[in-house]
Design brief:
alpha/beta; TIM Barrel; globular; binds flavin-adenine dinucleotide; Mehydrof_redctse-like; flavoprotein; FAD binding; FAD; Methylenetetrahydrofolate reductase
Length: 288
């Protein structure tokens, strides 16, 4: 018997302003047909103006497409004034959900001093706009800056206590690592819903980029076999990458995950494929 109906949600990123929004708008219209529980919009950690990128796209998704929207907000390179301004911009367009982030520290770029950790940002938002819903990021295999998983989970507990209503994980390919993390969170007293971040691997370049940036993520044997076997066969690599993600999602849903957050890479076809293969699981009504 199932305990709950999980959510299926998507992540998108604002395109480089020089490229324009036509492609992402078309993709979002296709995603709208899949009725996601929410869509989250990433934010650049230094490079682009958040108002012209994240806030504008979040406004479109929330108000034109009428899909609940979460705006990401990495704060390490922002001042309190800039964060207050961004919160006000989001409030004005009715986007009142923020994924509160520290953001990555960019080598050679000196951070601002106002927000050292995501927890500092959460406390600030709680003060400035207590009606906002705050979501946090978490790392089933530990954050790379952490000396060990225990201290990372202790810090996560502080973050949740500061005011997160739910968490979204970094992508992972080994569900066992996620279940182990969930158990440790429960033991640490973290009791908010944890949404599992799933990224289907669609091509070799994406896989190589990932392997370089996510060194701490365990790659199970069957995942590595896909990358090796279809190294020079893009069509099969894409098919196997999608099937692998579907397999992960089926396992997560049957183990009562709170939600699956799909890293779509702005690709509506990916979202459509996953939705087609799994939507019956997300619409499943709990047995009384
Ligand atoms: P924090 O929660 O502050 O943690 C960072 C590190 O500091 C961890 O090692 C933690 O254990 C430690 N720490 C936390 N609190 C304390 C404390 N009180 N004392 C000592 N140590 C502490 N980046 C972007 O730039 N834009 C995005 O849109 C974006 N979206 C993301 C979405 C998701 C779901 C995830 C998982 C990550 C995303 N990131 C994004 C990346 C994120 O910004 C980086 O991983 C960043 O390095 C950490 O951010 P955080 O909010 O998790 O940091």
């Amino acid at each position: 018997m199932s305990r709950q109906t999980p959510s299926l949600s998507f992540e998108v990123f604002p395109p480089n302003p020089a490229v324009g929004n036509d492609k992402i708008i078309a993709a979002l219209k296709d995603m709208q047909g899949l009725a996601p529980h929410f869509i989250s919009v990433t934010a650049s950690n230094n490079k682009f103006n958040i108002k012209e990128t994240t806030v504008r796209l979040a406004d479109y998704i929330q108000n034109d497409l009428e899909i609940p929207t979460i705006a990401h907000l990495p704060a390490i390179y922002l001042t309190k004034d800039k964060v207050a301004e961004t919160i006000a911009d989001l409030d004005k367009v009715g986007v009142q959900k923020i994924l509160a982030l520290r953001g990555d520290i960019i080598p050679g770029v000196e951070p601002q001093k106002d927000f050292r950790y995501a927890t500092d940002l959460i406390e600030f938002i709680k003060e400035q706009a207590p009606h906002f819903d705050i979501i946090g990021a978490c790392y089933p295999e530990g954050h790379p800056d952490s000396p060990n998983q225990i201290s990372d989970i202790q810090n996560l507990k502080k973050k949740v206590d500061a005011g997160c209503s739910s968490l979204v994980t970094q992508l992972f390919f080994d569900n066992e690592r996620f279940y182990d993390f969930q158990d440790k969170c429960t033991l640490a007293g973290i009791d908010v819903p944890i949404h599992a971040g799933i990224m289907p691997i669609l091509n070799r370049n994406q896989a190589l980029r990932l392997l370089k940036t996510c060194e701490n993520i365990h790659l199970p044997r069957k995942f590595k076999a896909i990358l090796d076997k279809y190294e020079n066969d893009p069509e099969s690599l894409r098919a196997a990458g999608l099937a692998y993600a579907v397999d992960q999602i089926v396992d997560l849903v049957t183990q009562d995950v709170a939600g699956v957050h799909l890293y779509t890479m702005n690709n509506a076809e990916t979202a459509q494929y996953i939705h087609q293969a799994t939507h019956a699981l997300f619409n499943h009504q709990p047995v009384k």
